[in-house]
Structures are given as structure tokens and as C-alpha cells.
């Protein structure tokens, strides 16, 4: 009976999300990320305990034995007239139970999907965002490996071929729509230790994590009655786990950077409640041809140059950074294309398009990327 009550509550949340559209949520409604991704009750779920062999396209599909996973797409796009856009389309799967199914009804499921869609109109100084929920039943939401697809109602990522690329992304909310295709460029990046990304000291506090860091992108962005032909580059992150954050960890700062010399950099800083950076922070630098070098926590130096307070929630986020990687003779200054890119939904975080400038081995360098700031609301 308790599980059916949970399902009814989730159904109500799904309906509320559908009708609320782009309206902001009440401040008190956001869930704590540290609680959602903490240890909790892990009985019956598979655990991330060490390196494994990845198999594609199978691993592009769902992993329902684990408690949560996500398919994360971000990118910077430019229209023919120079207008700049950033986008995010993310699908989350959460298990309600370690049991495969909660009943005999076609409506019953042990999996719930959540999706976030955002578009940053840099030139127009507007940020559009939307959230949806649905259950993994009756075709409302789900994921498959072959052919690859993940969807929530009419928001979707699909592959037209046996492999995963090219991918076709579609999402629309209100006056905003995205219809783009992502092509192949660099090989899969297995993050951490061959895809085993440790997030803490305790056994199982880790994820399986891989990325596609630079996918040439083209398609259409629609704003009201205007459509823009766009091109640029996208980034995909894939993670699944049962527990990730541990006691004392409140969130993370994640940087995905595409430099104009063809290199890509990912780095995440796990933050502790006392303000320190956890030693399990990590990253990678990907060369033009796809070779990779790990960046341990001590290899990357950060300096926060500015902060921004959300007028909607009062949350204070870092808003400009100086990043130094001495081993690469690389210094970057990273700045949001637009300050207000806060995702104020069931989970509150800042996710936005950024621009970067700096010097690499003494030569000027620039680029674009995405930054995600999670858990700052827990510090208020």
C-alpha cells in the first residue's frame, strides 16, 4: 500500500510539472541533492564497486538494477546571423524500488523519469527552462539501447542507426523548441579509472561514468515565431550509480570545456559542507585526436572571481573563475554567457553556457563550455 501511495504522489507531481511549464517552483519545494544521491537504503540495488568492461551500444541504454542514472546533453550553438544559444536536455531515471515491478497493472512501474530542458538565448538575454516527470509505463517514458533512444513524452534523444551516433534531439516547451542532430567526432571517454568514478571513501560511493565530449551539432532553434539554423558542438555525459555522495559532501562544481585548439577538459570539484574540496575530485583532458590524461584533484587550481545571487531563490553561486592547470601551462578565465541560468525545479542547481579566454603555453586561447553548480542551496 505504501508503494502505491508513493506512485500516486509521483503522478500528482508529474501532472503539476506538466501544467506548470516554465513557471518557477516555490523555494521550499526543492529536494536536497545530498539526500537524493546519498547512501540511504541501498538494499537490493546493484552497487558500483570497481572497474567493469563497458559494452556499446548496450551501455547507452538503461541500467535499472542501479538506483539512479542520467543522460546529460549540453552544447553551444551559433545561428547564421551570429546569434548564440546554449542548451541543456537531460533525462534522469530514479528507481522507486529495487523490485522490478510494483504490480500487475500496465500502469505499475518501479521506475520514474524526470527531464530538464533549458535554452539560453545569449543575444536576447533570456533563459527558458522546463521540467517534466513521467513513469516508465505505457510508453510515457523510458530508454532502449538498440536502437538507442531515451524519451519522456515528446522530449527525446534517438539514434537513426544501429550505433548511437548520429543522435537526434528534440524538445519543446512553450514558445521554445530544439531540433538538432549530433554527429561523431571523438571516441568515448571513460572517466576516472576506466569508467569507474569514485566519489567518496566508502565502498559503493561511486558511479560508472563516460562522456562524448565534442559532437558536431546542427539543426534548428525556435523562439516564438522565429526559427534559427544553428551549428556548434555538444557534450554528452552518462552516469549510473546507487549511491554517490557521502556524509559531509553537499554538491559539486562540474566544468565541461571545449577549447578552440580542439582540446576538451572535464573537471568536477566535490564540495564538503565545511567549504573544503574533497580529495575525490577529478578530471580529464582530451587531446584533439582523442587521447586522454587524467587530472587528479591537486592538478587543477581554482579561484572564484565573482558571485551571483539568484533573485528568485536567494541562492549564491560562483559566477566567474580563474582555472590554472600548471602541468599544461594553461590558464583560463571562465564566465557565464548570461548570469541567470538557475534551474529552480524539484532539484535546484545552476547549469549554464559559459565562455572562456586565457593562455595556453603563452598563446591566447578561447572557447565555450558548460558549468553545473549543485548543492549551493543546501548551504543557505
Helix and strand pattern? HHEEEEEEEEEEEEEEEEEEEEEEE
- Which structural class fits the helix and strand makeup? mainly beta
Q: Could you name the CATH class?
A: Mainly Beta
Over all CA atoms, what is the radius of gyration? 20 Å
Helix content class: under 10%
Largest sheet: 13 strands, antiparallel
Percent of sequence in beta strands: over 45%
Could you give the distance between the termini? 36 Å
Helical stretch count? 2
CATH topology: AttH-like fold
Mean of all residue-level pLDDT scores:
88
Strand tally is 23
Please indicate the count of domains: 1
Which word captures the global form?
Answer: globular
Unreliable parts: 1-29
Would you write up a description of this structure?
- The chain is built from two helices and 23 strands.
- The protein has 380 residues and is mainly β.
- It has a single domain, classed as Beta Barrel (AttH-like fold).
- Strands 1, 2, 3, 4, 5, 6, 7, 8, 9, 10, 11, 12 and 13 form a 13-stranded antiparallel beta sheet that branches. Strands 14, 15, 16, 17, 18, 19, 20, 21, 22 and 23 form a ten-stranded antiparallel beta sheet that branches.
- A hairpin with a 5-residue loop joins β16 and β17.
- The longest helix is centred in the first third of the chain and has 19 residues.
- It is globular and about 65 Å long.
- The two termini are 36 Å apart.
Amino acid at each position: 500500500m505504501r508503494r502505491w501511495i508513493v506512485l500516486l504522489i509521483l503522478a500528482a507531481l508529474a501532472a503539476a510539472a506538466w501544467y506548470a511549464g516554465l513557471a518557477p517552483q516555490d523555494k521550499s519545494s526543492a529536494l536536497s541533492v545530498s539526500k537524493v544521491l546519498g547512501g540511504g537504503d541501498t538494499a537490493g540495488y546493484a552497487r558500483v564497486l570497481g572497474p567493469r568492461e563497458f559494452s556499446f551500444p548496450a551501455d547507452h541504454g538503461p541500467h535499472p538494477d542501479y538506483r539512479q542514472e542520467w543522460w546529460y546533453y549540453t552544447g553551444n550553438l551559433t545561428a547564421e546571423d551570429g546569434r548564440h544559444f546554449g542548451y541543456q536536455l537531460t533525462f534522469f531515471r530514479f528507481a522507486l524500488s529495487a523490485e522490478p515491478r510494483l504490480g500487475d497493472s500496465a500502469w505499475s512501474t518501479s521506475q520514474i523519469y524526470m527531464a530538464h530542458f533549458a535554452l539560453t538565448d545569449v543575444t536576447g538575454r533570456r533563459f527558458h527552462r522546463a521540467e517534466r516527470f513521467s513513469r516508465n509505463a505505457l510508453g510515457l517514458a523510458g530508454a532502449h539501447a538498440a536502437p538507442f533512444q531515451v524519451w519522456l513524452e515528446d522530449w527525446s534523444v534517438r539514434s537513426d542507426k544501429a550505433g548511437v551516433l548520429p543522435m537526434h534531439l528534440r524538445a519543446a516547451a512553450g514558445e521554445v523548441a530544439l531540433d538538432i542532430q549530433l554527429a561523431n567526432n571523438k571516441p568515448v571517454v571513460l572517466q576516472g579509472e576506466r569508467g569507474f568514478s569514485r566519489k567518496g571513501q566508502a565502498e559503493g560511493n561511486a558511479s560508472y561514468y563516460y562522456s562524448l565530449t565534442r559532437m558536431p551539432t546542427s539543426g534548428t532553434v525556435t523562439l516564438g515565431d522565429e526559427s534559427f539554423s544553428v551549428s556548434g558542438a555538444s557534450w554528452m555525459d552518462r552516469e549510473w550509480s546507487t549511491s554517490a555522495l557521502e556524509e559531509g559532501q553537499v554538491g559539486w562544481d562540474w566544468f565541461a570545456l571545449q577549447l578552440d585548439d580542439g582540446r576538451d577538459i572535464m573537471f568536477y570539484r566535490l564540495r564538503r559542507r565545511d567549504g573544503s574540496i574533497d580529495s575525490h575530485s577529478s578530471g580529464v583532458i582530451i587531446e584533439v585526436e582523442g587521447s586522454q590524461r587524467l587530472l587528479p584533484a591537486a592538478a587543477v587550481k581554482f579561484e572564484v572571481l565573482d558571485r551571483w545571487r539568484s533573485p528568485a531563490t536567494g541562492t549564491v553561486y560562483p559566477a566567474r573563475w580563474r582555472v590554472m592547470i600548471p602541468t599544461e601551462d594553461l590558464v583560463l578565465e571562465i564566465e557565464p554567457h548570461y548570469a541567470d541560468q538557475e534551474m529552480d525545479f524539484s532539484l535546484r542547481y545552476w547549469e549554464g553556457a559559459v565562455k572562456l579566454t586565457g593562455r595556453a603555453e603563452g598563446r591566447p586561447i578561447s572557447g565555450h563550455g558548460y558549468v553545473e553548480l549543485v548543492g549551493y542551496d543546501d548551504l543557505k
